[in-house]
Amino acid sequence: MKSALRIAGGVAAGALGLYVVFVLVMGPKIEVARVARRDVLQTVVASGRVATPYRVDVGSQIVGTVEKIPVEQGDTVKAGQVLIVLESSESRALLAQAEATLANAVTQLDRNRDLRAKGFVVQSVLDDSIHNEEVARRALEAARARLAYATIRAPLDGVLIARDVERGDVVQPGKALMVLAPAGEVQLVLQIDERNLSRLKLGQKALASADAYPAQRFAAELVYVNPGVDAQRGTVEVKLRVPQPPDYLRQDMTVSVDIEVDRHPAALSLPATAVHDASGAAPWVLVVRNGLTHRQPVKLGLRGEGAVEVVDGLAEDEPVVPAAAAIKPGRRVRVAGNA
């Protein structure tokens, strides 16, 4: 039994020794990145907020006490929808009085016309009746308008993004009670580092996401670049149009945006993590050729998100050792996945 164990132990030790020798001779097996053709996309990344091109302040045209507010902040409303109702008993009384006054003025006018036709009154009496009827009619129009002002309606379709009024408040003309963001075009307003200004062009496409919904991305387009630079922050304001805004977008939401500033389709490229000194004057990679690692200078082109274009120095499908690997030039290695 002991003899068998000694034999098994010797076999295991021998196998281990052979493996160590094999590794020393052939080198360790390593994972590599392959030079491949892919679209290299360069973007400018920034954050900003959702904005509508303009906002509408909703207020009262008369002094009054708020009786009802049938909407809430955040509601989507239609043009003509009731937003605020003011107490209107006085306005209704004035309207009823104006209607009665006009009715009397019309009756008196009709009577004086008949009397004038029969010669019982002079023309001046008829003229006074005509004037009184006109005044009464204008008073009625004013009373109707005042009563209509007691009901404040949405001037257009949109979303109520602010509300500064409650039931019982006494409101006056000139104060914004609500703010309406009109339905339709939505913009994203961003502050871009001025160092990226030369890369920006109107019409560039972008992908954006609201911080509240990071997994849901939507398309946008660069439509405005401010001609001035914010000297304190070193930024430039830009605006992007959202042609099909998702339903969940709200005014002033925080968004993250990737603006596509350049794209090279089917470019020979590598993961950026495979390049040494990628931002320096002499970038290089550790390429595996005939089982040995070689330091290979490369000329880089477009530098995209996670990938860089290789203009010169490598061929398609060549294996490259990741820059973080503890492998030096001249080392024998085995590429993982090769037979």
What would your notes on this structure say?
The protein has 339 residues and is α+β, with helices and mostly antiparallel strands. It has three domains: 26-53 and 185-339, Efflux pump adaptor protein, beta barrel domain (Elongation Factor Tu (Ef-tu), domain 3); 56-86 and 150-182, RNA polymerase II/Efflux pump adaptor protein, barrel-sandwich hybrid domain (OB fold (Dihydrolipoamide Acetyltransferase, E2P)); 88-149, Orthogonal Bundle (Helix Hairpins), CATH 1.10.287. Helices cover 24% and strands 39% of the residues. It contains three helices and 22 strands. It has helices at 2-26, 89-117, 123-149, and strands at 29-30, 33-34, 36-51, 56-59, 64-68, 76-77, 82-86, 151-153, 158-163, 170-171, 176-182, 186-193, 205-210, 217-225, 235-242, 254-271, 284-289, 292-297, 299-303, 307-312, 319-321, 334-335. The strands form five sheets. Strands 3-12-15-14-13-16 form a six-stranded antiparallel β-barrel. A four-stranded antiparallel beta sheet has the order 2-21-17-18, with no helix packed on it. Strands 4-11-9-6 form a four-stranded antiparallel beta sheet, with no helix packed on it. Helix 2 runs antiparallel to helix 3 (123-149). The protein is rod-shaped and about 145 Å long. 23% of the residues are buried. Residues 15-23 have low confidence and may be disordered.
Distance between the termini: 40 Å
By CATH, the superfamily of the largest domain comes out as: Efflux pump adaptor protein, beta barrel domain
The CATH topology name of the largest domain reads Elongation Factor Tu (Ef-tu), domain 3
Shape annotation: rod-shaped
Strand content: 35-45%
Number of helices in the DSSP assignment: 3
What structural class do you assign from the helix and strand content?
alpha+beta
